[in-house]
Amino acid sequence: MEHITSTPTAKAPAERFTGDVYLNAIETPSEPARLAAALVRFTPGARTNWHAHANGQTLYVTDGIGLVGTRDGNVVRAGAGQTVKCPAGEEHWHGATDTTLMAHIAMLVGDESGDGTTWLEPVTDEQYAKALATVAR
What we know:
By secondary structure, the chain is mainly beta. The protein has a single domain (about 10-130), classed as Jelly Rolls, CATH 2.60.120. The protein has one helix at about 125-135; strands spanning about 10, 15-20, 20-25, 35-40, 45-50, 50-55, 55-70, 75-80, 85, 90-95, 100-110, 115-120. The strands form 3 sheets. Strands 1, 3, 4, 7, 8, 9, 10 and 11 form an 8-stranded antiparallel sheet that branches. It has a two-stranded antiparallel sheet with strand order 2-5. A two-stranded antiparallel ribbon has the order 6-12. The radius of gyration is 14 Å and the shape is globular.
């Protein structure tokens, strides 16, 4: 057994996120399980770039209200206690609404090269505004 009392908070890299996003690692992928998990906190309007995961991703919202969007225009609004699952290979993004912060635990199973994430271009302000308009406030 290993008891980890705290992990340092890191600002998420600007090349993968828009706005202020903060990460606390929970688990990094390692053999044999390859689980990656992190507590991710998004300030209002902050979001990930478009990305996909080789083995999918599960997002468990712990605080606030967030959005998860896919390339086909599907948008889910999720609040504390709700879970969103993104299937393997699906290009998506996630982040806070424009008025409310959001925190989630992001979980995925990595592959032999690491966490299995392919990072893509930023979500534009227009794409984000359309996602906000798609979901009821």
